[in-house]
């Protein structure tokens, strides 16, 4: 793999209208500055549900180590990676080879390989014994000394950032910051390292790195290398907008749970990846999924009086199980 994976500057103008939101005030700002961030989040979520964040508080140095460790993992021999196949894990942790998931119904399987990590939870934990979705121990590669420590450190920081964003989203909906506390407790988030080989010159029709899909959870925090290739659907003119790398930012998008909570006011938008850079592409997705037992139903004020909510109430776990069933059929 080449060493071109670290994010570097790209002009914010290249984001074609996907806003870059400074979330620094969420940590240190006064009430007026926090309200201004909430207003920007509201506008972004009512629009495409995709935005960049800067001043996010995760160090460049840690992000660089995450990419290095990910590159080291995907460079391992196939048999070493396959020894950690996610099929060995009752909680969907571990390695997934190329073409194992089809995110876009009817399209060929995705041209990506990945590695799934979650919070390390012992096999004797009551939640694991009860069979809670995506909850349990990880499968860790041996022979990559820094891998586990790096991913644990990143997982903890991404979780903290996810909590910050979800609280700010509560404020953006004129709800108390504590509104989602039950959802935020015992969150079963997923860290997914992704590797996309270059798109072949003659792909099967419709073959992509990642087919068009919406994300399943609450909020996704995405790091990408310099390759580009992430595209977001513009529902208005049915085009695809590039979401190129922008230095020192995450791409953040709202997942299905926020669309359900807000009765469609906030958008869980289709997106896809086509790696036409001619080189390997790495990205790192942190899916803030929340407490699997939490019931997701239309929020107060998101349906007009007397109007039936557009989505039935579901638990996080029910929704996730259905999304996994559909894309791993
Ligand atoms: O790799 C990317 O840039 C996006 C990945 C993605 O959309 C996903 O894993 O849900
Ligand atoms: Fe996605």
TrEMBL record:
Any Pfam family hit: 2OG-FeII_Oxy
Enzyme Commission number: 1.13.12.19, 1.14.20.7
Cofactor(s), by name: Fe(2+)
Enzyme class name: oxidoreductase
Q: Does the keyword Metal-binding apply?
A: yes
Q: Which UniProt keywords apply?
A: Ethylene biosynthesis, Iron, Metal-binding, Oxidoreductase
Q: Which reaction does it catalyse?
A: L-arginine + 2-oxoglutarate + O2 = guanidine + L-glutamate 5-semialdehyde + succinate + CO2; 2-oxoglutarate + O2 + 2 H(+) = ethene + 3 CO2 + H2O
Segments passing through the bilayer: none
Query: Which SUPFAM superfamilies does this chain map to?
Result: Clavaminate synthase-like
The answer to whether UniProt assigns keyword Iron to this entry is yes
The Fe2OG dioxygenase domain sits at 186-290
Pathway named in the protein's UniProt entry: Alkene biosynthesis; ethylene biosynthesis via 2-oxoglutarate
Family of this protein? Belongs to the iron/ascorbate-dependent oxidoreductase family.
Report the protein name in the record.
2-oxoglutarate-dependent ethylene/succinate-forming enzyme
Q: Which organism is it from?
A: Variovorax dokdonensis
What taxonomic ancestry is recorded?
A: Bacteria, Pseudomonadati, Pseudomonadota, Betaproteobacteria, Burkholderiales
